[in-house]
Amino acid sequence: MKSGSIAWALLVWVLVGCGGAGPELTPLGSEDRILAFGDSLTFGTGAPRGQGYPEVLAELTGLEVVNAGNPGETTMAGRQRLPNVLAEHRPALVVLVHGGNDTLRRQPAATTRDNLMAMIDDIRASGAQVVLMAVPGASLTFAPPDYYAEVADAASVPMDAGTLRRLMRNSEYKSDQVHFNADGYRLMAEAVRDLLVASGAL
Questions:
Q1: What is the pLDDT of residues 109-121, one digit of tens each?
Q2: CATH number, domain at 14?
Q3: Cβ distance 195 to 132 under 8 Å?
Q4: Domain count of the fold of the chain
Q5: Average pLDDT of span 48-52
Q6: How would you classify residue 82: left for phi > 0, otherwise alpha for psi between -120 and 50, otherwise beta?
């Protein structure tokens, strides 16, 4: 392997934040659609319109990316909303970024875990692939709750465990206590792109 290839592999290893993307995905085609599903971190709260991570991800990949972010949404509400969104947009792949509002509202961990698993099941039943971004918990270290790793392992889902935590810990990339600015969302989009590359979707 050439030195440049080695450097790129090491960079992806670091960026996905989990020692590798995990399970491999089927490569996306040029006409395939990505669905970005989540709450305010998907919507792009805190950045100018059109500068959230889904819009930047579309720019980086050249693929259509639908922004299906709903600020303030819990995983229970997301679980109820998801089937209609899947039926409307028929994505080939879903980027799931959910659970932050559960933490803020002190929902039981088991409830959030079950809702994430149910959403992954619904996504796969629709014929789409899925990747997961672990959302930081309410602690001084911003470590994501353990259920993200549990879900990713149980469902064999590629996951980024570290990017959102690193961004949350750096005020340079934040617009307020829980949301990013345009620079933060661009880095988030780059991390999602790298996760898709590392898992074989791109």
A1: 999 999 999 999 9
A2: 3.40.50.1110
A3: no
A4: 1
A5: 96
A6: alpha
